[in-house]
Specification:
The chain is built from 11 helices and 12 strands. By secondary structure, the protein is of the alpha+beta class. Strands 1, 2, 3, 4, 5, 6, 7 and 12 form an 8-stranded mixed β-sheet that branches. It has a 4-stranded antiparallel β-sheet with strand order 9-10-8-11. A hairpin with a 7-residue loop joins strand 9 and strand 10 (299-303). Helix 8 (222-239) packs antiparallel against helix 9. The two termini are 17 Å apart.
Length: 336
Amino acid sequence: MRKNNDSIIYSKTPLRISFSGGGSDYPEYFHNFKGSVVGSSINQYIYIVSRPLKNWGKEKFTLSYRKAESVEHVDQIEHPVFREVLSRELSDRRFQFSVLADLPAGTGLGSSSTFTVGLLNLIKFLKEENLTRYDLAKLAIKYEREFLKEHVGVQDQIHASYGGLNKYNFFKNEVSITPINQPSINREILNRSIFLISTGIKRRATNVAKDQVKRTKEKKILSEIKNLTSLVDETISALRSSNPSKMLSEMGKILNENWYIKKSLTKKISNEKLDNIHKSILSQGAYGGKLCGAGAGGFFLFVAEPGNSKKIQKKFKKQFIDISMESNGSKIILGN
C-alpha cells in the first residue's frame, strides 16, 4: 500500500464513441470471424475518488455513487462491480470511494466498462501493482464477462484503458490496436462537428445485448455484423480525407448506414421514438448519425457542418451535448 495513504487519489477515465464496427467486438463473433471497430475516447469522464477510512467505527467500506452504502463486510456491498472488485482486490483494507460522472450511466457511451477500468486502475495503483494498458483492459474484460457474467463486448474496456482514436481488430484470442493518424485540420473540424443527442432513455446494455449475443451464437446475424465491419476501412479513409468537407459528409453516410444495419440485428435496438429523433436531427441538416452502444436508448452520435451543429444545438439545447475526441486513457491523479 502506498505510504502516503491519507491522500485523496482518484482515477479519471474517458467515455467513448464508436464510429463503425460495433457488434463485432463480442467474443461470440470474433472467436470465429474477424471483428473490427473504429472509435475514440471523448472529453467526458468518470471519476472515482478514494481515501482510506480512519480506524474508528465499524464500517469497512463506504461508497457514494447514485446511492450511498456503508458496510462492515465486503459481501454486503450492493453495487456489483464494487463488490466483485473489492472482494478480490482490497478486502483486507478499509476505504471510502466516491463516484462522479460527467454523463449518466446507461446511455451507450461505455460507462459500465469505463467504471470498471477506472476502479481497477485506481485499486492497482493503491496496491502499488503496475499494469500495462493492455493488461488493465484484459482484467476489466475478465471481471465483466467471467466474474459478473455481463453480456458485453470488449471494445469499451480497451477504449477506456488506451484512449485516443484507434482501429481495433479482434480475432480468436488476439487484439491489435492501431492509432489512426489524420490531418490536424480534419481532427479540428471533426471535433467541431460531432455531438450527442440524448434520447432521454436509460437502459442496461447487458439486457439489450443479450438477444444480440444469442442471435450471434445462432449465426442468424453474421452477414449483418460482417457488413458493419466492412464500414471500418471506409471510416478510416473518410477520417484521413484530403477534403475536410467531404470527410464530414462521408462520416455522416457511414453513421447512417451503421445505424440502419444495427437496427436489423434485433428488434430491441430501436423503436418509433428513436427513429423519430434520428429523422428529426437529419431534417435539421445533420449529415448522419447512429445510436451509441447496444441500443434501445442513451445517446445518438451525429455529425454536421459546424454551422448546422450550432443551429441544432439552439433547437435541441436540452438534449444536445457538445463533445470532442481526446487522446488519454484512464489515468491516476493525486489530490491533497
